[in-house]
Every structure is written in structure tokens, then in C-alpha cells.
């Protein structure tokens, strides 16, 4: 397994288990199976509404002797409705309680967007935004305090473009150590990758398989990563699956990757992708694939009543 290093020398396994859209009743087992298969990195978030069950899986694995807490790397994310400085610690403590842990390895600001407290999803209210009361600078200051308190060993962000990262770079103190963004061969984000690498910000790729389980009608005609003929050809050459090639692609770029699965066979298949070595010519073919597509476009946060627009969120809009 490849590991990526933080500046203090701590390491994160390049391959982790994603838990977004992992159903209740399934994710506990998925976590146990993943740890048994060798995963040591688990990616969680408050908004996935399953952290308690993920925590039960962790507890089962630790009690059975499969793993020790200190051998696991657990990430979680601050939801948009807890961005005010005094909300960050209670939010983190709530996540720790659900996960049954006394510290996180990594805590991320999930989106550069602030909701009013109590609002879970943007669609619930017309006036859900409160960004004036919770500027990123205040949220980021509180995140740094979480690190100083030892509640999170590392801190970072998710869904931040270069402008948003620049906003944090202008502040004193600790810079984000990780940026978790959508990334796969349809969205390689070379500029953002170069930006982050030049500033020692690690990257985690979410939706590495193209998030095939989040297709609403609106996305029915989206291109499908897992059905891409060029990627299939590369997979066939290696006797691997398309999913494994997609996972190996991130690892080859020194980017952490968190495929979600609650299926035991696919959890194990995905883990084996860490051993798949793609050649320079495979990587070149993947770079030339010629399809550009963002599966998680953030449009649920923009619209008539929103002070945010897609241009705020992404560098390429
Ligand atoms: P399942 O949980 O039934 O395995 P992403 O990580 O891009 O969001 O993709 C997750 C989706 O891809 C889930 O629907 C998951 O279904 C499915 N999936 C996970 N691993 C594989 C794989 N190796 N091949 C095909 N589909 C996969």
C-alpha cells in the first residue's frame, strides 16, 4: 500500500473506504469487511448520516483484534450548518461520539458554504445561507483550535477551488493539509493538483468511480466512467477491472482515493487495486481520454435565493 505523508511525517494510506451513500444496515458490515480486507483508511462525514453505524463497525473490528485504533486513519467532515466559530467544537465532538473515537486523524470543512444552524439540506428553506455570520476565516480559525486541542490530528478542506484556498492562504496560522475533491479521468483537475502540490496540500479523490449510485433523472445522460471503452481496454490488458484501473490512476498520481462500496466482493476487489501498477503509456491514454465531466456539480447549493454560484465553487465554470 502506498502512503502519502503530511508535513510532520504522519502518513495516510492512499486507499480508503468511502461511506457516502452507504446505506444504514449495510455500512457496519462494510467497515468490518474493509478492515478485514486490509483497509486502514475510512472516509466519513456528518452529512452521510451513518457515522454511528460506521463507529459500530470500527468497534467490532477493534474488539475482534483485527486492528488497533492507532493503525486506522479516520477522516470526517464539518457540515455546512456548523461553520460559526462556536459551533465547530460541538460538531466535532458529536462526530467523535458517533464514531466512538476520542480523536480524528483528519477533519475537513466539507464545503466552502455556510448554512444557518439547524438547516441540513439547502432545499429545506429559502433563507438557509448565513455566510456573513460565518466567514471562512472564522471557521478555519476554529478548525485550527481543534488541531491544537488534539481532537483532530490534521485539518483540511473539501470542495475548495484555488480561489477559496487562496482565501485561507492569506490568513495566518496552519494551512489546510488536505483538499478532498471530485477527481477521476473525466475530471483530472491538473491545475488544482499542481496548485495543491506546490503548497504541500495533499489531495483525496472522491467519486473515483463516477458515483454511479447518485444518478438522478437530471444526470441520466451523464457519461459513464465504468463503461468507458478506453478504460476497459487498459483494464483488459492488466487482467483488472475498470474500477481497479480508476483507483490505481489516483494512487499513481500520489492522490488518496476513497471508492465507496458496501459489497464485500467489490470492497476486496477495490483494495487489490493498490497493487495495480499502471504504465506511463496507460497514464497517457487516460490523460487523453477526452471526456470532461463533473458528477457532483454543487448545483444543489446555487440558484435564485443563493448568494453562491457555480463560479464561486469551481475553477472551471
Ligand atoms: P456498491 O456499494 O454496491 O459496490 P464512487 O466511489 O465513485 O461514489 O462509486 C460508488 C459506487 O460504485 C457504488 O454504487 C458502488 O456500489 C459502486 N462500486 C464500487 N466499487 C465498484 C467496482 N469495483 N466496480 C463497479 N462498481 C463499483
Automatic annotation (TrEMBL):
* InterPro entries hit by this protein: AKR (IPR020471), Aldo/ket_reductase_CS (IPR018170), NAD(P)_OxRdtase_dom_sf (IPR036812), NADP_OxRdtase_dom (IPR023210)
**Any idea where the NADP-dependent oxidoreductase domain is?**
15-288
Q: Which Pfam families match?
A: Aldo_ket_red
**PANTHER family found in the cross-reference section:** ALDO/KETO REDUCTASE
What name is this protein filed under? Aldo/keto reductase
